[in-house]
Amino acid sequence: MRFALNGHEEDVDAHPAARLLDVLRVECGLTGTKEGCGEGECGACTVLIDGAPVCSCLVPFSQVEHAHVITIEGLGDDHPLQHRFMDEVGAQCGICTPGMIMAALVLGKNPTLDDVKTALAGNLCRCTGYGAIYRAVLKWKAGDESPPSVESE
Amino acid sequence: MPSVGQNVSRKDGIGKATGRAQYADDLVFPGMLHGRTIRSTIPHGRIRSTTISIHSGFRTPDHDDASQRGSLARHGFTFVSHRDIPGRNVVALIEADQPFLAERDVLHQAEPIFLLAHENVQTLNALTIEITYDTLEPVFDPEKSEGVLKRIDIVKGDVEFALARADVIVEGTYRTGHQEHVYIEPNGVIAVPEEDGGIAVYGSVQCPFYVIKALKSLLGDDAKVRVIQTETGGGFGGKEEYPSILAGHAVLLARKSGRPVKMVYDRVEDMIATTKRHPSIVKHRTGVMRDGRIVAMDVDVILDGGAYVTLSPVVLSRGCIHAAGAYRCENTRIVGRAMFTNTPPNGAFRGFGAPQTEFAVEVHMDRIAEQLGIDPVELRRMNALRPGDQTATGQTLRDDTSALIVLDEAVKRTDFHRKRAEYKGTNKAIGLSLFYHGSGFTGSGERHLNSKARLDLTEHGVRIAVGSTEIGQGTRTMHAQIVADTLQIPYESVEVAQPDTSKVADSGPTVASRTCMVVGKILEECALDMRAKLGSMTPGQYYAKHGSFSVERKYEPPDWIEWDDHTYRGDAYATFAWGCDVAELEIDPDTYEIKPIKLTAVQEFGRPIHPALAKGQIEGGTAQGLGYALIERVVMKDGAMANAQLTNYVIPTTLDTPAMDVVMLENRYPDGPFGAKGLGELPMDGPAPAVVNALRHYGLDVRELPATPELLATCDSL
Questions:
Q1: Is the CB of B29 inside 8 Å of chain A's CB atoms?
Q2: Which listed residue, of A76, B399, B453, B532, carries a Cα 20 to 30 Å from A42's Cα?
């Protein structure tokens, strides 16, 4: 089945009912997307499908045919939001971080703290109490918009 | 430029922000099988017989039957029972009572009985094993249980004599429920047979050397095993003792199959089978004078230990030592008991008994204030421990005692009294808690541990080689700061070895708020030695001239520490960290929905090595404490967690977590590295009593956690 993954066309042979999460991690070898609960509660497996943040543990592989999936690996290692997460210590244990970053990517311009909280309400973090994550996201938004290569997909 | 006190970048920041950090489930080894645990489905009984079915077409009557095991093997399964254990079927910890795999008796739900491995996960999960039991009556109520796992008595002065002379006696019973850790990465390990005949265990663990101890019991003392900590997605105590069992299981499967075996729990299995915070019942009987002076404290602590001893004795110990709160009292009696019940063993969880007992004493303090008609701040101020005072164990406190300092700062900063008056009669409320937390192992614990640390000189600087694990709290970064500044080299020149028990020094477990204060101190000593040997050279210059060398040092607790394990008298901790939390809430008077508006956390822990990391510990611990206070309820049915999903067991989201005002005060501990004390657990102790005292301010007599709307609807109005 064909779909776009981080900007590249991929042809992957996996069961149509396989979880997108497993296809990404096992078939595609992209282990940056994490499993925390397997039922769409924790958000650790958040990826963008055609620009929308989605829990990849709830998506059957067949649903992404011809869609564009972006995972944390699609951001490379020099994305300004990644730098803000490092500067503000938005990552402690780090297991929720890829999902947090993917969920935060779709925030619009000049978000309020409430906007950030709402955007991240489906992503659980047990380490930070969220404060450092808000600081990272708000500073990123105040400082620079993300590169269009990710947000405009 | 010194790095201590600066917010240098985390050593592990880039790996975590890019998703490149490798957690246990991210690792794949050639020929790897997946493992599965077959668990009991009853709380108490004896195993009678076992039936195994592969896809429904394959049945055998008895797991001892050789033909059945042959059939399993033909289908590609590896099957393990207790008979496959070469050494002792005992998870070595404090007592030798818990088996890796049940033999005949089952003492709790989800107790491991058999293990299976297969290369295909679907095939593995399609196999069914039915076990029939002769069931026995279970015990679930710790107050009705007759099995005492541990009893502790702390006695100072004459409680009965003082109670008889007190103006007023205030009594109360306080209860707390289980709490689930909910590290976002569930437990997981991979056991890998190595070419030299040994086995390597890669895993999400807090204490790699605990796992080694358990594996030596399982396999025999001469077994060749090493444990490598993978990136770990949170621990909070939940990966302190449990991974020893999981690692043992994976190792048994790997030995039998000769192949790597990965065992990663899903969330449901993790919640049903692994440890939780001990539920507690704490009874207070306190003698006070009319002016507010506390003259007698009689405290009875019961913890629900579950079906095996595991760490309950030491959780009880810390709970009891903290049970009299941050107050001075000449006549104190604390009796603690950890009780057997037919539930999965409860275990280590951030705070380790203290959140339970400090909840009780802090709610009790507000009730005493109420009965005497004294302001709750004034009552605390009058009785708070000061330098020179003695704790319940007879420990004389030193100058780094900050109860009054944190209390006064929190009251002033929150304008507590004005708000207290202003909110009265509205849907808003405000309450506070004063608390403390002993840093490091209790009593003689650090002396027995004999922790070591090592520094290796490298081409570019130095490498820290300790078994202390990074589980999110910032171990790597904070240790590197201490070493860099002591050696007077750049922070960037210090690297931190991945904990591999075959390569690093055993610096003791990553628990008990000891990783900065104790292990950091040994590293400081190592760095001082190394500095002396380097003379005026940089590590690079020395390496070029003489090559590498290592420095290893052992922890020496301060020489003034005296502790008697039998009488429970003496210096329980080298130092304490102190905190005062103020909770402001909004209460829906119809639904009892509680919305925390603001949490002010004033905490003193010596000196923050990395202020942003320290703030993260306080914010994260406070959020965990708020969850404990209000929403995290474990529902037990027939001895098993009935809501073992994140859909039904909820933890605070962004929308449940209030604004936090974190204040970090300094009062340096002279024997800590750069004056640091322990911090990790302190923030867990304060939020629950602050919230419940705010609910009391609103007019609800709450004496139990979690204070869910369902509970509040049944509480008396004041």
A1: no
A2: A76
